[in-house]
Amino acid sequence: MEIPNDPAILLSYINTKLRDDYSDLDELCKSLCVSRQTIESKLSAIGYAYDQTKNCFR
């Protein structure tokens, strides 16, 4: 499955998946066959970082 390219849409997509389907970012990345670095890099470009305790990008 391909993830959205637009960072704002990606943020919404990833946070929804984390909330509804995955217990952490590593599990999501493994399931979607995408590197954690790719997601974190795209979202850090718009000022978001993964919060492990909340299991979302903030």
What's the overall average pLDDT, rounded? 97
Tell me the Rg in angstroms. Answer: 10 Å
Strand order of the largest sheet: 1-2
Quaternary: single chain
The number of helical runs is 3
Structural class, judged by helices and strands? mainly alpha
Write the layout of secondary structure elements.
Elements lengths: L6 H14 L4 H8 L3 H9 L5 E2 L4 E2 L1
Antiparallel strand pairs: 1-2
Quick recap:
The protein is mainly α. Helix content is 53%, strand content 7%.
Description:
Strand 1 and strand 2 form a beta hairpin. Strands 1-2 form a two-stranded antiparallel sheet. The model has no long low-confidence stretch (mean pLDDT 97). The longest helix has 14 residues. Helices cover 53% and strands 7% of the residues. The chain is mainly alpha-helical and 58 residues long. The chain has 3 helices and 2 strands, in the order H-H-H-E-E.
Features:
globular, mainly alpha, single chain, two-stranded antiparallel sheet, 58 residues, 53% helix
